[in-house]
Every structure is written in C-alpha cells, then in structure tokens.
Specification:
single chain; about 180 residues; alpha+beta; three-stranded mixed β-sheet; about 25% strand
C-alpha cells in the first residue's frame, strides 16, 4: 500500500546533539510500535490471496536461502533490496586470520541496501509531523574521574562524579542508588 493512500504521518522529534555539545540539533524519527512477525504476516495475508501457513513457509524459506547464500559469500538481490556480508574487526598483520570465534572484536555483519523504489518512496514522503520530545530521565551529561586523571573509560570500583538532570534516586527501592 502507498503511504499516501492510508493517510499517515511520520512523527519526529528534534534532539540536542549532546556529542558535539555546540548547540546543534538533529531530527529523530519516533517509532510508533514494533510490527511483530505475526502482525506482518497478517498484513501480508490481507493484501494477498495467500494463507498464513503459505506466507510463513515462504518467508522462512526466503530467510534460509538468503542466509545460505550470504554464508557462501554471495550478495543476494530480493524484491526488498540487496543483502550482503561484511567482515569487521582489525588484525595485527596480513598474516593473521579472520576468526570471529577466536578473536574478540572480529565479527560478521549483515548489510541491507533497499531497492531504488523503496528509497524513492521514503525520499518523496512529505507528511511529517514534529512532536514534543520526551527524553527519559535522568539524563547523564558527564562522568568525571574523582582520581584526577583524564581517561577514555572507567574501571570497576573507581570513584566517579556524575553530572546531569534529575539525578535522584529512591533509597527505598532495591534497584536504585549508589553502588
């Protein structure tokens, strides 16, 4: 179905870019809900003459076929787009082996590139609605070592100061507090 035909708007919020900390902002799409696999199949059933069992089997077979071909090193073009694998993680030299089972930090990633039709449909979609941002509280702005060192991370048991908004806890709750 064409998004224009079902009269929906895409909701978004404007968020402060806390990584740059320069006052800049970015738009974030507000996800309304997760369409579960069961609901997805119900929607497909409504739009086709196929029964739930047939749709489920076809989707399971498509998934197994895509996975099989990816693990053979192929890129797979489907009506939804192209799937392919990439290897992530570094090695010390060209003599090293890529082995995610043995080397922490090495892993395979499934990549997806949508069809040009899907990209165009999203690019042409213009029914956007800005909504008020609801940021979950508390918000942590900064964590600083109490040991006076500049560092990239913190060790277990290290004393740190945490700065932010609504940094309160209920000492009656077991899962809240300072540990």
């Amino acid at each position: 179905a064409n998004p224009k035909e079902i009269n929906m708007s895409l909701k978004y919020t404007v968020q402060a870019n806390r990584l740059k900390n320069d006052g800049s902002c970015y738009a974030r799409v507000k996800r309304q809900k997760l369409v579960t696999e069961k609901r997805f199949i119900e929607l497909l059933k409504r739009e086709t003459a196929l029964e739930e069992f047939d749709l489920r089997i076809a989707l399971e077979k498509a998934q197994a076929t895509i996975l099989d071909r990816l693990l053979e090193g192929d890129a797979v073009q489907t009506p939804l787009g192209i799937f392919h694998l990439t290897a992530k993680g570094g090695m010390a030299s060209k003599k090293d082996f890529f082995d995610p089972q043995e080397n922490e930090g090495q892993y395979l990633v499934i990549n997806y590139r949508p069809t040009s039709h899907m990209k165009k449909a999203v690019g042409d979609f213009d029914d956007l609605e800005k909504i008020k941002s609801t940021i979950p509280k508390p918000i942590i702005h900064e964590m600083v070592s109490r040991e006076g060192e500049d560092q990239d991370g913190f060790a277990v048991g290290q004393l740190v100061s945490i700065y932010g908004e609504d940094m309160v806890f209920d000492d009656e709750q077991e899962d809240e507090g300072v540990y």
